[in-house]
Amino acid sequence: MTTSEHSRLIRIGRIDYANVWPVFHGFDEKRLDCEAEVVYGMPAELNRKLREGEIDLAAISSFAYGLNGEDYLLLPNLSVSADGAVKSLLLFLKSPLEKVRFGKIMMSSTSATTVNLLKIVMEKFYGGKPVYEAAEPNLEAMLETADAALLIGDHAIRASWENRGCQVLDLGEIWRTWTGLGMTFAVWAVRREAARRQPEAVASIYRELLACKRRNLADREPIVREAVRRIGGTSDYWNGYFDGLSHDFGSREQAGLQLYFQYARELGLLEGPVRLEQWPESVHA
């Protein structure tokens, strides 16, 4: 390995949805033992950038890992998961569910995991076959021409506060009801080539992410205040919201994710089995 390869700037993809704040809030690349740049983006954008090598490490949609897992390693003990209602992955129904099953659903296209979870819910759980169309995340505009609309992240949260008469289905709650398992919506992944080329840099980033997670779990008040300031709502709402999330990646989260990948294969959304291969933190952390 040449000196230039060893010292190459490492790029970290960062989503700014509230559901990743318990890991990312307080993250400071200046504390790392390497040269690093944080690249902000929506989930679909970071999925693409990691796939194409424009960034080296990121929180990405679980489905994006399923598509490209042979190029990635998972960072252990980090995810965005929920064992039930998640409050930010919501399907708003203008029409009765019986009509929605074979009607039109407009979808915010910012998360491949949730878009495909919706297809699993509609087709495997409810036996439907709706038409799906991508749209900008504006609930009123989406429902002008559709029977239901899927919103994700902070857009879903705000729309739930302003909802005027729609039935609202929480995809995390539906998944838990039908499978008995939690659902992992995002994982932290590093490109294998980056892990081989700069193992010390990856170790430094991983240590900082875990340290941020520990601090935010020990004292959640700063992220609750930030959520109220930036998104709205009350402290009680946000404490309940963060209570419903898990940012671990233990055996239960992995079992739920493997079942999700199995269903995705059965619907033809993935071509083959997905192996959950984790970066060897026992060596580098």
Automatic annotation (TrEMBL):
Protein function: Catalyzes the dehydration of chorismate into 3-[(1-carboxyvinyl)oxy]benzoate, a step in the biosynthesis of menaquinone (MK, vitamin K2).
This protein's encoding gene: mqnA
Name the record gives this protein: Chorismate dehydratase
Xref: CDD domains: PBP2_Sco4506
InterPro entries with a match to the protein in the record: Menaquinone_biosynth, MqnA
Coiled coil: none
Keywords, sorted A to Z: Lyase, Menaquinone biosynthesis
Pathway the protein contributes to: Quinol/quinone metabolism; menaquinone biosynthesis
Classification of source organism: Bacteria, Bacillati, Bacillota, Bacilli, Bacillales
Enzyme Commission number(s): 4.2.1.151
